[in-house]
Amino acid sequence: MEKHQMNKQYVYEMLIKLLHQQEQFEQEEGSLFLQELRKSIEFDTPLNMTEIHVVACIGQHEPLNLTAIADKMALSKGNISKVTNRLLKNGWVRRTQLNDNKKEVFFRLTSPGKQLYAIHEEIHDKAQAQFMGILHAYSEAELEVVKRFLLDLIGFYEQSIAKITEQT
Question: Do 36 and 123 contact (CB within 8 A), yes or no?
């Protein structure tokens, strides 16, 4: 096998390994986050990471309507509707309307939702700082290659998802 082909195979294998490690990391991170959260806020209902990220999205941009949340999170409106209904039911968010638009519903964080958002941001900032430490070792030219690769990979997955969606 020629060196170029071997390198491509190696990159593919490393991507698969990365995806598996990311999945495991997200599960562990989610558990750790929920443990930290329970130390600060008492809550009885289970929360998943999608719900936490919807709270974070609303916290960053409130007030937001369902369509804006779906767009910002790249999830379907149906999925966001289910998540926001659970968040409403459990007291993390509330519905509001703007004075000049009584027809459209917007979401804002409740007091517990703001606490959840603050804790999420603190943990997120720590994780981002750690990631930036990794990137610090790369030159500007290397970062440009990494950016190009990630953009190409995102495009690949977007096209793959679109093809799968068309088939269903």
Answer: yes
Q: Which two tokens stand for residue 92?
A: 């993390």
Q: Are 62 and 109 in contact (CB under 8 A)?
A: yes
| Beta-bridge mates of residue 108 | 94
| DSSP characters over 94-131 | EEEEETTEEEEEEEEE-HHHHHHHHHHHHHHHHHHHHH
Residue 104 has phi, psi (to 5 degrees) of -90, 140
Is residue 124 a contact partner of residue 56, using CB atoms and an 8 Å limit?
Answer: yes
pLDDT digits (tens, 9 = 90+) for 29-44: 778 777 877 787 777 7
In this predicted model, which residue has the larger pLDDT, 69 or 33?
A: 69
Structure pTM? 0.71
Using H for helix, E for strand and C for coil, what is the string for 46-81?
CCCHHHHHHHHHHHHHCCECHHHHHHHHCCCHHHHH
Residues 129 and 150: beta-carbon distance below 8 Å: no
Which tokens is 47 given? Answer: 């929360």
Query: In the 8-state DSSP scheme, what is residue 41?
Result: -
Closest by Cα among 81, 19, 24, 92 to 52: 92
Backbone angles phi, psi at 39, to 5 degrees: -70, -30
**DSSP, res 93:** E
